[in-house]
Each structure stands twice: as C-alpha cells, then as structure tokens.
Amino acid sequence: MTWNRADGRRTDEAPLEVACDESGSDGENLVGGNTDVFAHAGVRLPAATAEAYVREVRDRIRSPAEEYKANHLLREKHRAVLEWLLAPAGPLAGQARVQLTQKAFVVVERAVALLTGEDDGAARALFRAGPGAYGEERWREFLGAANRLLRVRGDGQPPPPVTEFFRAVDTLRAMGGPAGAPEVLERLAGSRQRAEAYRERLLDGPPLVPVLNPLLPAVVRTAVSWSAGGRPVVLVHDRQNLLTEDRIAWIVAAARSRGAALAGVRLVAARQDARVQLADFLAGVARKIASDELNGHGDVVLSGLLRPFVAAESVWGDEDSWARIGPRDEIPGVAARLNSAV
C-alpha cells in the first residue's frame, strides 16, 4: 500500500469511474428558457452491467427508436418501466445520484452573492418572499432583470441591463416584504457600482466560467460527492460544447480545491457508453419529476422513488417541493458554498 504524501490518499487505488449526463440545459437563460430545473446525474456501474440494463429497458419499451432518451420512460404507457428503474431494488439503487438545480433560485443567489457578498441565507430570504410578497408579475420582472444583468450575452435591446435591474429592485423595495427580504433589497440597491464593474469586465470577453451556467458547478459537486472518503474518481461525461479543455482543467482544479480526488474528466458520446445512457435517463426523469413538484402537480409515487437519488448538495430554494423530493432530514446545500468556485 502506498500513499500520496501531499494529501494523505492512497496512490495505488484504482479510480472509480462515474458516468454523467445532464438534462434541462438552457445555457444562461435561467428564467425564460424551456425548463425551470437543471439536473446532473452520475451513475457508477460496470460497463457490461449498464449495457444489460439498457438492453432490458429497450426490451421492456420496444420502441423502434435507435437511441432511447428519458422521454421514452416518461410516457404513461411505460410507467412500469420507470418505476422499475427507480425502485429500491432496481438497477440504479445505491449506484446513482442526481444534483438538482432550481434555476430561478440560482439567479437570485448569484445576484445577491456577486453584488452584495452576502451568503445563501440572504438570498433565501428574498427568494422565499418571492411572488407571495411582491406579486407574480413584479417578481418575474425582477428575476428577468437579474438574469439579463448577469448573463454574458445580452439581447442588445434597451434598457441597459444595469438600469433595468435597479429599476426592478426599486419596485420591490417600495413594497417592503417579510423579514429579511427588505434588508437584502436595500443592500442590492446600494450595489450599482459593483453591477457596472461586472458589466464592464464582460466587455473584455466572456469569462471562462459563466456566472449563471449551472453545468460546471454541478460537475464539480458531482466529483466531490463521489470522491467522499478520498477515493480517486474519473468522470465519464457526455460530450458538451461547454466542456472545453480549459473548462475541464478548471473543473479538476475546483474539485480538488474542495477535497475531491478527481483524477480527470473523459468525454464520450452517450450512444457509445451505456453508463452515460443510464445517467441520461436518470437526469431526464429527475428533472421532470422535480419540475412537476415545483409547479404543484407532482406524483407522490415517482417523487418517493426519486428521493433516494437526490443529492443533498442540490441547489434548491423552494421549501415545499424540497420536502417532497429531497433527502429526508436534509436541507438543500448552501448555494454560496456549493458555487463558491464559480
């Protein structure tokens, strides 16, 4: 047995391969896109075992499609196959995890952190006030303005994003709100200089890690989660345009800075790796189940089956839906801590 003297880990232990895929990516458009939840799944299974499970999914569904996706499993006529996949004695039990990200909460958390330096608690106070305190229309206007302020690529339409954001902040300030929210809004109102400096930096070129894109921090959290205990991990990830060589290097450095023994990230085509296909299945169905809960029409059976797979490190702001899908006796991870590498 040998040990890495720098960090105390064994150097002769074979890395654990975790296959990964995502669902619900709309880039930096977190409040006006097609989905309100982003999911990133990791699956730990031998390749041959994963291939056998994918074959069984195909045998049970019997669709002529060349490549199966999560939407096959989400059709009502295939409900039994989905329940089998997520069952406590099913193929993925104990071998998979999914990071959930509530997109609207990320917008609020990132705006509060970037402009005021406040932690997750301040963002939650404002987020949980939300439409209940300010009305659906004004709250959506605030979220949209915050999203446009922080995103790298603007739409080029007036008003300028800084002006629009602080106009939305002033609208909410005038309405007060429950404990905690007015204080956060006051701090945001005093942060115009930071906001202008942020937009000025974007003129020099897009940052390596966009503030709002949920994929990169989710990959880091996945690496940290699976390497708990110090075992080296290699992530086998579906190919993504965002996962450039420079960003993979950033992921590895960020994960290692948080104690993960991330040995590397390898990109593959999902169709060529059954483990990644299973990760795609889990990410897709988890996103849909979580979104249904978030919007008040969840399925108690599917939410109960999903719960064991949901990572406590998920970035989630809505308390009611989290109580139905999150790990029991856990609160979602502190976003300021989880996204601190961004």
Q: How many extended strands? A: 5
The spatial strand order of the largest sheet comes to: 3-2-1-4-5
- Percent range for β-strand residues: 5-15%
Low-confidence stretches: 1-9, 334-342
* Alpha-beta content class: alpha/beta
- The tally of helices reads 15
Helical content, roughly?
Answer: 40-55%
Overall geometry comes to globular
Average of per-residue pLDDT values: 91
Distance between the termini: 36 Å
**What's the order of the H and E elements?**
EEHHHEHHHHHHHEHEHHHH
Radius of gyration, in angstroms, nearest whole number? 21 Å
Characterization of this structure:
This protein is α/β, with parallel strands linked by helices and 342 residues long. The chain is built from 15 helices and 5 strands. The chain has helices at residues 47-61, 70-73, 79-86, 103-116, 120-134, 136-150, 161-173, 181-189, 192-202, 215-226, 245-257, 274-294, 300-306, 319-325, 335-338, and strands spanning 16-23, 37-43, 96-102, 233-238, 262-268. α11 (245-257) links the parallel β4 (233-238) and β5 (262-268). α1 packs across α12 (274-294) and α6 runs antiparallel to α7. The chain starts with 15 loop residues before the first strand and ends with a helix. 43% of the residues are buried.
